[in-house]
Design goal:
Layout lengths: L3 E3 H8 L20 E6 L2 E3 L2 E3 L1 E10 L3 E6 L4 E2 L5 E3 L3 H12 L6 H9 L2 E10 L5 E6 L1 H14 L7 E7 L6 E6 L6 H8 L8 H5 L3 E2 L1 H11 L32
Parallel strand pairs: 6-13
Antiparallel strand pairs: 1-5, 2-9, 2-11, 3-4, 5-6, 5-9, 7-8, 9-10, 11-12
Length: 254
């Protein structure tokens, strides 16, 4: 199963510490310049109201390899680096990471392409349609949204919010602010009829999971020579036995 964290575990990842009848949904398109009117379905953890979200490790290369998760995920360190049961993409990351001598050198840049990066799925109720939606956010975007939810605390279920995205590339920001105008009759109906809990199964079924053979194919698509990590072009057979990887996060050059 893909490595997806929910509840307190997802909150820990966000803080930097160690619906639908088929329970199926696609990520809602949320491009820059978009604003969605939503109701927040909050949850309380350790006395604090937060959003309903899940964290997962995402692989992929922009405009080259579409995002996916590992069907057979690796064990990660507290800071999210693979340490055991490495996937083919983890092995490609490690190949370049081991050769990197300083931050942002060529091997560092290459390693970053293949590293599994934490991302966050946030669930809301779309007040225009009345249906649950899930948006995909980076860690910084997710922290901004969750900080807004924590700010309004126990009032969050009494307010409608505007979820907005602005900017471009690495400067893209996401905000969640109270909606100050009156809701339409339909929006108010959807607000009043929203469920008390968000359907967590929607998080589990939204991601594409690639097995090891698929991941090898996607490495080739990315232009990586899989023989460098002991894999043949026909299978995921490893030339050498895998050993647990000892990673000191503080010493990594990227």
């Amino acid at each position: 199963m893909a490595d997806i964290l929910t509840g307190a575990d997802a909150l820990g990842a966000l803080n930097g510490e160690g619906g639908n009848e088929n329970n199926s949904i696609d990520f809602t398109k949320f491009s820059s310049g978009t604003t969605i009117l939503v109701k927040v379905i909050g949850q309380e953890i350790n006395g604090t109201v937060i959003g309903d979200f899940a964290m997962y490790y995402n692989y992929g290369i922009f405009k080259k390899v579409n995002s996916f998760t590992a069907k057979n995920p690796s064990k990660k360190s507290a800071k999210g680096y693979p340490v055991e049961n490495l996937t083919p993409w983890d092995k490609a990351w490690k190949y370049h990471a081991d050769k990197s001598e300083e931050f942002n050198d060529e091997h560092s840049k290459e390693a970053n392409k293949y590293r599994a990066k934490p991302k966050f799925m946030f669930g809301f109720i779309d007040l225009d349609s009345g249906k649950p939606i899930v948006v995909d956010l980076t860690k910084n975007q997710a922290q901004a949204v969750n900080n807004a939810i924590k700010k309004y605390g126990n009032k969050v279920d009494k307010l409608a919010f505007e979820l907005s995205k602005e900017g471009a590339s690495t400067n893209t920001t996401v905000s969640l602010t109270p909606y100050l105008d009156d809701l339409t009759a339909d929006q108010q109906k959807h607000f009043d009829n929203a469920p008390e809990k968000f359907d967590g199964k929607l998080f589990e079924n939204i991601l594409y999971q690639a097995d090891d053979d698929e991941m090898v194919g996607l490495l080739k698509q990315a232009g990586f020579d899989v023989s460098l990590i002991g894999l043949t072009t026909e299978s995921t057979t490893q030339a050498d036995d895998d050993e647990p990887t000892e990673i000191d996060d503080l010493e990594l050059p990227f």
